[in-house]
Amino acid sequence: MTNASWQPLRSRDAFGRLYHDGRRLDSRLIRCMFFFTDDTPSTVRAAFAVPGKEFISVQRHRIKRLMRESLRKEIPALHRSLAETRQSVSLILMFKGTKEMPRPSLQSVQESVASICLALRGNV
Questions:
Q1: Is 64 helix (H, G, I), strand (E, B) or coil?
Q2: pTM (2 decimals)?
Q3: Alpha-carbon gap, residue 82 to 8, rounded angstroms
Q4: What is the layout of strands, in order, in the sheet containing 88-95?
Q5: Second label for 92, Cα 20 to 30 Å away, from 32, 51, 64, 84?
Q6: What pLDDT is recorded for position 109?
Q7: Residues with Cβ within 8 Å of residue 103, at least 6 apart in sequence
Q8: Which domains does the chain carry?
Q9: Which burial class, exposed, middle or buried, applies to 21 when counting CB atoms under 10 A from its CB (0-12, 13-18, 19+)?
Q10: Does position 2 have pLDDT exceeding 70, yes or no?
Q11: Is residue 3 very low, low, confident or very high in pLDDT (cuts 50, 70, 90)?
Q12: Do 75 and 68 contact (CB within 8 A), yes or no?
């Protein structure tokens, strides 16, 4: 699935570079690993991860949908910041929750993604 506002992060090299060279941000529900590049200005490449041992597939897919929707709302401001510096960003959003926590709501996920995107804009 492709989106006009962000591109999926898929290649093994990109994930390897992200885990090896990337920096980390944490919010209450989500951990973000990211790195900036100068190759294609104002491009956002994103991946989403939810732990398989903690949640069944229906729950994982729902949480990923919530994270994608939350990122979609934050992308315009992120694009503006990236365009000013002519950089692009690759990031992975990882859900930190466990089975014991209550079911995450859209609002709680949006707050976590918004805080991460605000910190990303500050790091550009």
A1: helix
A2: 0.89
A3: 17
A4: 7-8, 44-49, 88-95, 30-37, 23-26
A5: 84
A6: 95
A7: 59
A8: 7-123 (3.30.230.10)
A9: exposed
A10: no
A11: low
A12: no
